[in-house]
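tool_call: predict_structure(chain=1)
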Amino acid sequence: MASGDTITSSEYIQHHLTNLTFGRLPDGSWGIAHSAAEAKEMGFWALHLDSLFWSTGLAVLFSYFFYKAAKNATAGVPGKLQNFVEMMVDFVDDSVKGSFSGRNPLVAPLALTVFCWVFLMNLMDLVPVDLVPRLAGAIGIGHMKIVPTTDPNITFALALGVFALIIFYSIKIKGVGGFVHELTGMPFQTDNVALKPIFFVINLFLEGVNLIAKPISLSLRLFGNLYAGEMIFILIALMYGSGIVMGLFGGALQFVWAVFHVLVITLQAFIFMTLTIVYLDMAHNEH
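tool_result:
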């Protein structure tokens, strides 16, 4: 959208909430959607190019700096980067020791990756809402959302990755029979042969809901909090965007909200990491 276009409030909000979407166009060809309605018509197999770009780019950025710190690590006086990485490793290690009772060398690196990656994706919410979309518009890109965690496709993908590990380790540690028994043998138990099939179905339903709720809670909690934060930034920009005085007031208000939002950003990354550790701990424990 060109910077000089005159748009309504609803169009402004819709524009900022629309991803750069690639998929099948109504004429049967493949390309980028030019509107929210066109993006919606592309269906399930559409790709959100901006979410993929920013999430992948931030993952590469995180990996590069941590690799650089590990490669240049010294037993002598550490540099600032090494100090920071060691602090992050110690922080995550303490969290894992406090929440994970099993033995698995994957859990701590996974927790570190989850926390840092989610935090960086959340951090993009502090970039001024009009800055990147206007720069993208100047080079002909109509839509550009830069906060991957405001896209449920990204948060669900993260949560489903954790869910796959939960299923894998549940079966690996307990066996197929143990995993099935965990889903069907609790919370109701009986020695009555006639009641066992009834309790089997009830337990499977209750434990199945509990199992499925794990990835849903992970993804929706992260998405909901970051989406709400983005909406507030957009509404502030919309209400106070015109006029020098109003623009300054809006900028001050955005700064105040940004300071508070730093806590939300960090807390949501920490919660996602902690729940990942706890869920994997539950998968390792035999009941």
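agent: The longest helix spans residues 196-239. Proceeding to next step.
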